[in-house]
Backbone:
């Protein structure tokens, strides 16, 4: 925690407010000033990210807002740049996201439950699994692409299908999902478990009825982070074989597909400026769909964590 | 965070009926199976990379690969020294960590300790959106905003269009929400009784944070840092776009570099015939990258363990 | 009371999944009722065929725009056929072609001997179809007022391995003495292979201090950003960015020729016009009528699309020669392992 503090320059007004707000006004200035300054520095730090987000959105909005329209959403890609739309990519993204959530959420939560609840003694074996997970979290996404190509596309002969894509994505997000779920489970106070056991509940009953519900805000964070990651990933699906050009939506798990990031990447690589515009517009679509997903989940999460806080 | 060590089973054993026990057992093993998927994945990756990477190491001595300082697998005279790629990757990881770690931790402290619920409920989702922005977009951002800005600041002559600094900055921005989100979770997990106790003794907020909250949450914070650095090491698209594809040992952040991941993209999107040594570099570099993150994680986990023990 | 709240929040876990489901349902529900937007060029045969089947095309990102236009126009006529086009690079495309995962591989270079050997091993026969020209364009920054044309000898001096050219003055004494920044397509791209062979005389040999990128737009950005830059890439990227970069005329001894559709087609823009290819699986051709149909569609109508997507079509005679080569199902490659730089399509097809 070595934060380089700027020279304490605190306005008189602020100092007065500080004195008023602190009940212990006998705290010397040499302790109060760093306190205030640190708070401001932290606030600025958290605003940096937001400011950058704003700048980024402004930039992209400027480049792509003209193209975003209902037609853009409901038409397929087109080799004539001004007619190109994102329908296939949007539907493909939803397909991949839903399938990825279906595969990864139950597995991820179950794995975290095993490591945190069933195996609280932290045996060598669970240490080994833990090591694996944290290591996998650091494996570059493109390596998952190589894995998905070898195992799902070739070995299991799923071909360049939406199923192969979703399975690859599931493996990719699992470590993140497990890690965050574990943190959420760790944060559940032991008293909750003890109380449940005391009432005669079995281990699983305790987990299912007490621990998981209490941890669900944290688990939600994990799911949101993982799904955000899955939606935004380009590299692995590039290898698994998401198509750059496709003018139909997947009808079943074995169909070919594309997703928004691939579509964006593909368009951004095109020489025609109209495709660049379409790429910016597709980014807007991607961000808005991300926003919609997050909003629903986050609102629920905040409500839950508000009620949990003592 | 003391756990009730094995308390559950001990209690339930008394009034256990066997179907219930069977169910508990099945669930337990199902959960174990899910946890084992990670092990299977690891072995899958190692097997895939090794079986293909062996083709490469049959042609190129492993020491030439690991210690060589010139990377030019497709251009005659060919040379397979991986160090320039490693140095590029290290630059991105280090540079982005300098940006993301302090900012992310401070933002997390603000969110968890200073901000009221209203502010939190606005800031946190916004940061999560930042995390969801596809990496391609960051690359685009680097080229259209960050690099021009760097070039006006430091001079057109000094700063190349593709440079390491621009990559460091956007990757830093990209992993910032990850650092922030995970650190915040770790900070929030610190029991409020600890804080209240310290306040009761007359500490200021800063003192509580510095002496109580952060040390208590250290293991989680370290884990966040490690995840962030791993992510930076593995970042592909933004780096490819921002920092270019010029393998070089240079430490000048204003020159073009190439990371291991950027190289993998280059080869998977390129026209190199499969089955050639140049093509198998893909797996050799993938293997190196994997070994890299693996080693880093082992060291990091040792660290976390040490800290955790110190505070329990 | 508390417990109720908690389990309520647990239910939100499921809500996310449910939400994505609903969203997914909407997306898929909307799939059926939107009108096709493909603006098929005015044609006399509106009757769509009853042809069905899947065609997967993958390979060179250079050929991708052609594949995309071809696929779309073909599906406009044959709505029952599902065509996907991907861009995994020529090498990646062939890898999938060898694994039998795709019916058509696109390539910005000729098939490699190792790839031919692997195909033989996998028992896959293929037919090679040259489809269009790409004119490699040497470009500089528009603020560069001194260099308008370069001879192939000068280009070689600039790009050859171990080149001593550092400044423009080293190229030509009348040029200014500012240091040059070099931009080149990725060293594993077909563009790089062709350029180095045509200019430096040997494939894959070039000075080693150039900034490379697989993404030609990145090169455009680089060259547009550095006043003293030089680089090269496909003609379509030049055409899309004429306001950002300036093309250099090439003098191969017969006077300086600027890259243009005409000069590339009639081979006066030499030696930098290179052919692009489709490689079609013979097995797919025999068993999947849609594959045969799309290749025939290319010869009947697809050639008109080439110019529109930024590439240069062959002359009608050249296409006739290629088509008869296809009609007789001649398997194997006539281009592979041969020096084809500077030769016309008919010369290559005829000359053994």
Residues:
């Amino acid at each position: 925690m070595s934060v380089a503090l700027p020279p304490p320059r605190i306005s008189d007004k602020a100092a007065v407010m500080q004195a008023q707000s602190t009940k212990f006004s006998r705290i010397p200035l040499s302790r109060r000033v760093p306190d205030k300054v640190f708070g401001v520095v932290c606030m600025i730090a958290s605003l940096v990210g937001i400011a950058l987000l704003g700048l980024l959105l402004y930039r992209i909005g400027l480049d792509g807002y003209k193209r975003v329209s209902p037609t853009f959403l409901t038409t397929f890609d087109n080799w004539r740049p001004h007619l190109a739309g994102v329908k296939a990519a949007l539907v493909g993204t939803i397909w991949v996201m839903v399938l990825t959530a279906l595969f990864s959420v139950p597995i991820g939560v179950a794995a975290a439950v095993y490591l945190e609840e069933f195996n609280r003694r932290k045996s060598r074996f669970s240490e080994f699994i833990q090591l694996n997970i944290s290591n996998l979290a650091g494996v570059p996404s493109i390596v998952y692409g190589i894995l998905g190509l070898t195992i799902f596309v070739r070995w299991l002969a799923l071909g360049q299908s939406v199923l192969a894509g979703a399975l690859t994505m599931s493996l990719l997000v699992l470590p993140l999902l497990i890690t965050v779920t574990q943190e959420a489970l760790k944060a559940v106070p032991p008293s909750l478990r003890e109380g449940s056991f005391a009432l005669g509940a079995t281990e699983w009953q305790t987990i299912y009825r007490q621990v998981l519900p209490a941890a669900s805000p944290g688990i939600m964070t994990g799911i949101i982070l993982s799904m955000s990651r899955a939606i935004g990933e380009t590299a692995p699906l590039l290898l698994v074989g998401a198509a750059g050009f496709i003018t139909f939506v997947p009808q079943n798990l074995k169909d070919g597909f594309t997703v928004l990031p691939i579509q964006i990447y593909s368009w951004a690589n095109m020489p025609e400026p109209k495709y660049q515009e379409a790429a910016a517009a597709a980014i807007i679509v991607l961000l808005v769909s991300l926003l919609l997903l997050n909003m629903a989940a986050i609102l629920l999460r905040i409500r839950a964590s508000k009620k949990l806080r003592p | 965070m003391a756990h009730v060590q094995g308390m559950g089973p001990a209690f339930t054993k008394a009034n256990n009926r066997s179907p219930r026990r069977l169910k508990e057992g099945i669930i337990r093993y199902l959960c174990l199976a899910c946890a084992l998927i990670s092990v299977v994945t690891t072995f899958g990756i190692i097997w895939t990379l090794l079986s293909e990477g062996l083709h490469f190491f049959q042609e190129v001595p492993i020491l030439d690969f690991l210690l060589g300082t010139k990377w030019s697998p497709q251009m005659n005279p060919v040379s397979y020294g991986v160090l320039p790629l490693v140095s590029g990757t290290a630059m991105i990881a280090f540079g982005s960590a300098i940006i993301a770690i302090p900012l992310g931790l401070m933002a997390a402290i603000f969110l968890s300790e200073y901000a009221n619920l209203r502010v939190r409920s606005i800031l946190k989702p916004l940061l999560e959106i930042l995390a969801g922005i596809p990496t391609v977009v960051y690359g685009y951002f680097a080229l259209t905003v960050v690099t021009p800005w760097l070039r006006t600041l430091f001079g057109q002559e000094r700063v190349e269009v593709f440079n390491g600094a621009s990559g460091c900055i956007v990757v830093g921005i990209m992993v910032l929400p990850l650092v922030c989100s995970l650190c915040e979770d770790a900070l929030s997990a610190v029991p409020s009784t600890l804080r209240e106790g310290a306040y009761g003794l007359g500490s200021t907020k800063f003192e509580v944070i510095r002496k109580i909250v952060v040390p208590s949450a250290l293991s989680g914070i370290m884990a966040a840092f490690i995840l962030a650095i791993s992510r930076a090491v593995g970042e592909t698209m933004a780096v490819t776009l921002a920092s270019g594809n010029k393998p070089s040992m240079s430490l000048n952040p204003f020159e073009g570099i190439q990371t291991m991941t950027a190289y993998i993209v280059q080869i998977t999107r390129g026209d190199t015939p499969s089955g050639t040594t140049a093509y198998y570099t893909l797996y050799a570099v993938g293997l190196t990258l994997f070994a890299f993150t693996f080693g880093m994680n082992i060291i990091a986990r040792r660290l976390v363990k040490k800290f955790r023990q110190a505070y329990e | 009371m508390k417990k109720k709240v908690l389990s309520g929040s647990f239910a939100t876990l499921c809500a996310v999944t449910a939400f994505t489901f609903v969203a997914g349902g909407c997306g898929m529900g909307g799939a059926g009722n939107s009108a096709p937007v493909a603006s098929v060029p005015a044609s006399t045969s509106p009757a769509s065929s009853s042809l069905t089947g899947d065609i997967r095309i993958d390979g060179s990102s250079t050929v991708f725009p052609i594949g995309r236009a071809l696929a779309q126009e073909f599906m406009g006529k044959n709505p029952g056929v599902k065509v996907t086009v991907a861009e995994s690079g020529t090498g990646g495309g062939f890898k999938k072609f060898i694994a039998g995962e795709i019916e058509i591989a696109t390539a910005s270079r000729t098939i490699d001997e190792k790839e031919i050997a692997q195909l033989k091993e996998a028992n896959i026969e293929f037919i090679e179809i040259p489809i269009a020209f790409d004119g490699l364009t040497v470009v500089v920054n528009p603020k560069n007022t001194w260099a308008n044309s370069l001879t192939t000898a000068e280009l070689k001096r600039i790009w050859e391995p171990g080149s001593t050219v550092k400044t423009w003055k080293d190229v030509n004494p009348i040029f200014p003495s500012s240091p040059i920044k070099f931009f080149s397509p990725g060293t594993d791209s077909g563009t790089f292979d062709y350029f180095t062979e045509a200019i430096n005389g040997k494939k894959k040999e070039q000075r080693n201090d150039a900034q490379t990128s697989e993404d030609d737009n990145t090169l455009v950005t680089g060259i547009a950003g550095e006043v003293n830059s030089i680089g090269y890439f496909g003609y379509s990227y030049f055409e899309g960015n004429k306001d950002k970069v300036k093309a250099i005329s090439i003098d191969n001894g017969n006077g300086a020729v600027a890259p243009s559709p005409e000069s590339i087609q009639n081979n006066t823009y030499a030696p930098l016009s290179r052919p692009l290819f489709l490689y079609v699986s013979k097995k797919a051709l025999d068993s999947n009528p849609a594959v045969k149909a799309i290749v025939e569609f290319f010869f009947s109508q697809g050639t008109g699309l080439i110019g529109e997507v930024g590439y240069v079509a062959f002359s009608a005679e050249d296409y006739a020669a290629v088509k008869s080569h296809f009609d007789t199902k001649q398997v194997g490659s006539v281009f592979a392992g041969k020096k084809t730089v500077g030769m016309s399509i008919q010369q290559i097809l005829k000359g053994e």
